Amino acid sequence: MNSSTNEKYAPLFRPLTLPNGTVLGDRLGMTPMTTFAGSPDGVLTDEEIAHYRRRNNIGQLAITGAVAVSPHGRLGDVQFVAYEEQDGPVLAGLTRLAEALRARGNKAILQLQHGGREAHLAEVPFGPSDKHFPWHERPTTGLSEEGIADVVREFGDATRTAIKAGFDGVEIHGANHYLLQQFFSTYSNERDDEWGGDLAGRMRFALEVVREVRRVVAESGRADFLVGYRISPEEVHGETVGYTVDESLELIDAIVEAGVDYVHTSLGGGFRATAQGDDHPDPVNQRVRDRIAGRVAFVVSGEVWTPDDAVEALTYGDVVTLGRAALIEPDWSHKVLDGREAEIRRSTGREQDPDIQVPVRMWDKFLEPNSYLPPLPLSE
To answer: What is the pLDDT of residues 39-70, one digit of tens each?
Structure first.
């Protein structure tokens, strides 16, 4: 650490040993964000590679945006994929991405996702149950037993691809209303078989995915390969509660027992947020931290802009990841290390500085009127 670095920021640059013995050189990482920069055939583009290479000094835990594990799980035609031929352009692009992220010694983590009802390219959008959601034109079709087994296998296949491409780990995307969360939610999961109903049934799909990913990792012999799980700790749709924080804590317990190396929360209100669906006074991340109790690493994110924010976030978790802050200031960590935290960009104009190399469609998506993405802070 540079001698000019303010000592109060030293906790950000202390090493961390993960459950499998992997050592992270700092407590920082990159929040997974969809870049909208993949090609229609799912192959990574030069623009996307450049975006990640520009941010490979943010922190040791370098997590990509979500990669589709299945043709019927792809969100759109600008999302990259991990389900095509194992020795073709998909694998070549993923290999380039892993190399770009690892160039500074980071751990390259590929986030694996199935969109479920949000998979807009699917001929038939799948979910846990036959259901028509008010915000979708097309109804969702419930997966059969065979279909569930296929998706579980696809997560394993994508993990195998990540290993072959040179990644250091995968993060299973169980958050943000995608398929794993849909199975956990009573709002979207109306099954009365062993994949739904009570809490154990609604947890089963997520746990089967974790176990399959762990099986593939064990088969590879890569004891140092990381497996993470991202979770939205509660689901509230107006007056409809799909599940509570307390139920998520039970799922987190089970996921930890199934063998993940870290848990990563996704909270709409940022890392300090309290629950919407109950009156518990403690921040959600504190409740998660207390339940994990040091058994695995805990990664937090959301509304982290300044070094002071990041240090505060570490009172909840072991690693803090940067999202929008890393978009507008890819040199964030470097400036903190050099004692130049006052120079960190906190806002941006509508026209991005070419130096920051954010994919054009990603930038436009953040700035379009009524975007579902959280806003970028504008200097105008």
So the answer is: 998 999 999 999 999 999 999 999 999 999 99
- The amino acid at residue 293 is A
Provide the CATH number for the domain formed by 7-323 in this structure. Answer: 3.20.20.70
Tell me how many helices (H) and strands (E) the chain has.
Answer: 11, 14
Residue 238 is encoded by which pair of tokens?
């107006």
For 181, phi then psi, to 5°, come to -65, -35
- Whether the predicted model's global pTM rises above the 0.90 cut: yes
- Whose tokens are 């709409």? That residue is 268
In the chain, domain spans: 7-323
Residue among 9, 52, 178, 187 flagged as catalytic: 178
Distance CA(256)–CA(214), nearest Å, equals 12
Compute the radius of gyration of the chain from its Cα atoms: 20
The CA angle 116-122-126, to the nearest 5 degrees, is 35
**DSSP, res 188:** T
178 catalytically annotated: yes
What is the number of other CB atoms lying within 10 angstroms of the CB of residue 7? Answer: 7
pLDDT, averaged across the chain:
94
